[in-house]
Fold:
Amino acid sequence: MISYDNLIKKHYILQLKRIDPFKATSPFHPFEGFGLECGEGWYDLLDELCTKIEEELDRTNDSKNEYPFQIDQIKEKFGGLRFYVSGGTDKTYDLINEYEEKSYTICEICGSNGKEYDVRGWITTLCEKCVLPQLMKWKLDVISSIEKCEKEIKNLVVKDILTNSEQKELNEATEWLEIGKSNLEKINKQLNNEVAE
Structure:
């Protein structure tokens, strides 16, 4: 798997700067501020995509275009790669669409074959090996939250009269307890499905 530093060094399109941040008159662009906003499991995918884009840009001599190619943002969203750009050719956009689709089959953490999962309410693309620790950590966090809610409820229901703020706390704790139990049920189903497969 290619490293972050080697990926950036290898591809000139990842090194292009749109603005001098100290003399900026145009809007802030996330790629310049945040770099790659995805897991290293997709770095090889990005390496392939950047290679093909650079070949296309070199072939069409992109620097002479009125709107030369620039990367606006590279990130994960809804379990898939998002590669937002300005400029380029139709082929450039076709390549980007192809590789964004490929990302839905590649684990964002390790680069193995993956599929989409719902972890903590976020859609993410992971392999079976990487999803289990994520689900187990979520399960432990939910169990801890349930225990805190139950303790809070127990402390409040023993009182004869509750103040307005205590009643509000009781209502919130009861609501969060139900959400926690629902999440725990969802996590257990996912874990059972993963173990069964």
Remarks:
- Strands lie at 36-37, 70-77, 80-86, 115-119, 122-126.
- DSSP finds six helices and five strands in the chain.
